[in-house]
Amino acid sequence: MSINKVVISGNLTRDPELRSTGSGMNVLKLGVAVNDRRKNQQTGEWEDVPNFVDVTVFGNRAEALSRFLSKGSKVAIEGKLRWSQWENQQGEKRSKLEVVADEVEFLSSRDSGSGGYSQAPAGPASDPGPDDLGEEIPF
Predict the structure, then answer these.
(1) Which residues are CB-contacts of 84 (< 8 A; sequence separation ≥ 6)?
(2) For the chain, how many structural domains are there in total?
(3) Tens digits of pLDDT across the chain (139 residues)
C-alpha cells in the first residue's frame, strides 16, 4: 500500500492563473509559499525559510477559486503529489513535483487586504514552533 497525501498552508506568491484544456476542463495554477523554521548554525537564531510549492486545481472549483484568490491570500490546501517530466525546446529534460489540490480553504479575510475570502481555519490557530517548546530538533 502507498499513501500520497499532503497538507500545506501558506500565502499565494502570485495571482492564480485560470486556463481551460481543449476539452473545456478548467485548470487553475497557484504558487504557495510555505515557511519552514530552521536554526541558523552560525547565529543560533531560529529563522523562517520559505518553500515555494506549485499547486493545480482542476474542474469547476478552479473557476470559482480564481474569483476569490489573489496574490498574498492565505490558504490551506489538501491534495496529493504529482511528478511530471518533459523536454524543453533545447532538448533538456525537466521535471517538477506539484500538489494537485482536492480541497482548498481560505484563511484570509477580505478585510486583511489580501483579496481572499474569509473562512475560519479548522483546529488551533497555530502550532507551536520548536523555539516555543524550549527544545532543539535533533536533526
Answers:
(1) 95, 96, 98
(2) 1
(3) 899 999 999 999 999 999 999 999 999 999 999 999 999 999 999 999 999 999 999 999 999 999 999 999 999 999 999 999 999 999 999 999 999 999 999 997 655 544 434 333 333 333 333 344 344 444 3
* The three cell numbers locating residue 139: 536533526
Please state, in angstroms and rounded to a whole number, the distance separating the CA atoms of residues 107 and 121.
6
| Residue 101 included in any domain | yes
Is residue 100 in some structural domain? yes
Helix (H) or strand (E) holding 68: helix 60-68
Residue 53 has which C-alpha cell?
A: 510549492
Task: Return the residue matching grid coordinates 510555505.
Answer: 34
- The confidence score (pLDDT) of residue 136 equals 46
Is 20 contained in some domain? Answer: yes
- Give the type of residue at 112: S
The CATH number for 21's domain is 2.40.50.140
- The residue segments making up the domain with residue 92 are 6-38+46-112
Q: pTM for this structure?
A: 0.73
| CB of 108 closer than 8 Å to CB of 74 | yes
Grid cell locating 106:
481560505
